[in-house]
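task queued by scheduler; priority normal; single chain, no ligands, no partner chains; default sampling; output format set to structure tokens
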Amino acid sequence: MAQLLNTSRFIKTPLVKTRSGRDTYGVIEGFDRLKNITGDNYQSFTVDSTLSGRPDLIAHQFYGNSHLEWVIVIINRPKNPLNWPSAGEVIKVPNNNFVRSLF
């Protein structure tokens, strides 16, 4: 069985078998909570040129953990996640308490 980091988006999902018999992980319970985040649970952040295209570096800056980049991407739902976010773009960054509540 695969080992997951405790920051993995799949940490709270059940282990399931694929049709081919491989182990994989399911969907996060309460995933919709990420899509409907309220203003109390995030701050707006203007991306500068050093963080352009690097949600992992933004996660590291705010949470001390680049593996939490998926939270920032899901919250913002970019149309094209490749090279997202661009310099000057204002994005939502969930606060630490909200992110901790996911685990």
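post-processing summary
- The mean pLDDT is 81.
- The CA atoms of residues 42 and 93 lie 5 Å apart.
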